[in-house]
Amino acid sequence: MRVMGLDVGSKTVGVAVSDPFGWTAQGIETIQINEAKEQYGFERLEELIRQFEVEKMVIGLPKNMNGTIGPRAEASIVYADMVKEKFNLPIIYQDERLTTAQAERMLIEEGNTSRKKRKKVIDKLAAVMILQNYLDSIAAK
Fold first, then answer.
1. What are the Cα distances from residue 68, in Å, to 46, 73, 77?
2. Which residues have a Cβ under 8 Å from the Cβ of 77 and sit 6 or more positions away?
3. How far is the C-alpha of 60 from the C-alpha of 122, rounded, in Å?
4. How far is CA 101 from the centre of its chain?
5. Into how many domains does the chain fold?
6. Which pLDDT score, from 0 to 100, does residue 117 have?
C-alpha cells in the first residue's frame, strides 16, 4: 500500500509517495496550481495516484504556532475535501508547522544556496517531510 503526501500551497502542491512497504517517503514533483483561479492540478494528481497505486493521502496541515487553524490551514482542508470527493481516498492530516522552514534550512546547509534552485524543490521536500513524519509516527505505534 502506498501513501501519498501533499504540501498544499496557493500556487504549488509538493508531492511525495511512500515506498510499497510504507517505510520511506520519496519526493515526486511539484504541481503548479492557481488557487485564486480554482486550478488545482487534479489531472496530474490523478495520474500520479494511478501510477503509484496510492491508497491513502497525508495532507500537511499548517497550523499556527499556538495550534489553532488559520487561513492557510483552512485552505488545505478545503483542498483535502476536494481530493477526498474526487478520488475517494482516506485523508490523514499531518501537522506541518515549520516543515517548509526546515526544508529550506536543509537545502541551504547542503550548499544549494541559489534561491531560484531552492524554490523549485522546496515544496517537494516539504511533502517528503510531511509524509515521513506520518510514516514514522505510525511505525512507532
1. 31, 9, 13
2. 61, 69, 93
3. 14
4. 14
5. 1
6. 65
CATH code of the domain covering residue 96 = 3.30.420.140
pLDDT of residue 100 exceeding 70: no
Q: Per the structure block, which three cell numbers stand in for 68?
A: 489553532
Q: CA torsion, points 79, 87, 31, 134, in degrees to nearest 10? A: 70
Amino acid in position 82: M
- Judged against a pLDDT cut of 80, whether residue 21 lies above it is answered with yes
Place of cell 470527493: 85
- The total number of residues written for the chain in this structure: 141
Helix (H) or strand (E) holding 124: helix 115-139
Amino acid at 41: G
Taking 70 as the threshold, does the pLDDT of residue 87 lie above it? yes
